[in-house]
Amino acid sequence: MALSATFRNSSTANTGASTASSLTISIPSGTVANDIVYAALSVDGGSGATITSPAGWSIRSSVNQGTLVKILVCSRVIDGSEAASYTWTFDSSRMAAGTMVAYSGAYLYMSSNAGTAGSSVGSTTLTPSSVSSAWTGKVVNFFATRNTTGVNDLTPGGSYVERADTCTTATPFIGIEAQELNVSAFPVAGNTSSAATASQSSTFEAVSVFIQDRHGAHLRLAPGLPVVDELGIASRTTLGGNVAPPGWSTHYPNTLCLLLVQICDTATTVSTVTNTSGLTWNFITRSNTQTGSVEAWYAWAKTPIFNQTVTANFASNATTANAALIPIINADASSGDGSSAIGASNTANSGVSANVSVSLTTTRANSMILGCYNNPSTAASGTALTGTTNFRTLVSNNTGAANQWINAPQASGTTATIGTSGTLPAWNALAVEVLGGTATRTAAGTRTLAGTRTAAGTRISVN
């Protein structure tokens, strides 16, 4: 039976009519093993506030609306070791509100457009970023609000429903709200940004999260068809020596881990990729003729791994970089190290204004095509070609970058193209083919993937 992301329950907490140096939020009642729980906190002070999360929580987003309000979103998977509640501490005594929302049947996926959607003081219309996804699941918008006139309440826009809402009871009134949209068809792009209406004129920040169905429509596929599991994403917008997707997990044995990196503003490359789970990272290809670099690396996870940080280390410091860590199940496992899952690859670049375009010829039926590109010259990430999805974009420091996949599996011998439908002034781009395993049957009639051993009658493919 398919498992779809389903709201389980929520809990809330706030500091009431006074400030506090911490906020304790209870785990929502009724949670069971493998539920996903998100914690979202709204804290007075914005960039002047520091929040320390408890152990076991992965930070998914931390965004400020100036020095007025900060929103922090964290997550964890329920595994039976949880405390009844968890405490977030602050650098000083502050007004704060928080919520936890729990979902069953879900994988964690922070969308390419997850992040900020800020307004100026005096707004009653709160519009989150659009969320793009090639899968089915739930969009959850977390709104952090601040105003000085009264307790705030948000009316959901479009087809959103409210899942949690709480606000302090004295000025500055600090609120947090969670609103959910069901996504029953894919791909979806750009149609999830329905505005909420606030009862009080507010300053706000919003974080949009996509909660991917565990075995939704995207997994009802033939054995051997590569499928994305849980994405890890990261970006860098200040000078530093790496970009590191945090809090990343896989859920199946024999998972191909594909890392796409875009360096936007500096003539440097990725020198090494490191992590704490013992994976060996292998270079596939790069394009760095124009400023910056776009690169593809891979590793093979023989067993599931949990809450890992993968670090792409630069040869020299860069200010703007983007990364997507893409675990892919049903990839060809026959080599035992992931090399058999990597098919064709290609690179391209342009130093003059042109549509981004990099093509390859597929080598096997049902292959998955992914790629990325940078734009070192302007604050734009480009418009994806028809039939593709930009699933993690970055626009910062007058540069842009995007990761992209082709929505449909490709037939063998097909010319497949990653790119944009409009021009960018300069760019580097790459495309990679991921090969699926060959479906076979054991003596007991069980379908498996090439290179994977099972006991008779044990079903290990996902369909």
Please supply descriptive tags for the structure shown above:
7-stranded antiparallel beta sheet; 6-stranded antiparallel beta sheet; globular; mainly beta; 0% helix; 463 residues; 33 strands; disordered C terminus
Beta strands, count:
33
Give the N-to-C terminal Cα separation. 10 Å
Largest sheet: 7 strands, antiparallel
Instruction: Please report which band the strand proportion falls in: under 5%, 5-15%, 15-25%, 25-35%, 35-45% or over 45%.
Output: over 45%
Number of domains: 2
The best one-word shape is globular
Structural class: mainly beta
Number of helices: 0
Integer-rounded radius of gyration = 22 Å
User: Average pLDDT value?
Assistant: 83
Which spans have pLDDT < 50 for at least 5 consecutive residues? 109-120, 186-191, 216-222, 439-463
The percent range for helix content is under 10%
Can you describe what's shown?
With 463 residues, the protein is an all-beta fold. It has 2 domains: 6-213, no CATH class; 221-434, no CATH class. It has no helices and 33 strands. The protein has strands at 6-14, 20-26, 36-44, 51-52, 58-65, 69-77, 85-94, 96-104, 106-109, 123-126, 137-147, 154-155, 161-167, 173-183, 196-213, 227-228, 232-236, 240-243, 255-263, 270-275, 282-287, 293-301, 310-318, 321-329, 342-350, 354-361, 368-375, 388-396, 399-406, 415-424, 427-434, 439-441, 447-449. The strands form 8 sheets. Strands 9, 10, 11, 12, 13, 14 and 15 form a 7-stranded antiparallel β-sheet that branches. Strands 16, 17, 19, 21, 22 and 24 form a 6-stranded antiparallel β-sheet that branches. Residues 109-120, 186-191, 216-222 and 439-463 have low confidence and may be disordered.
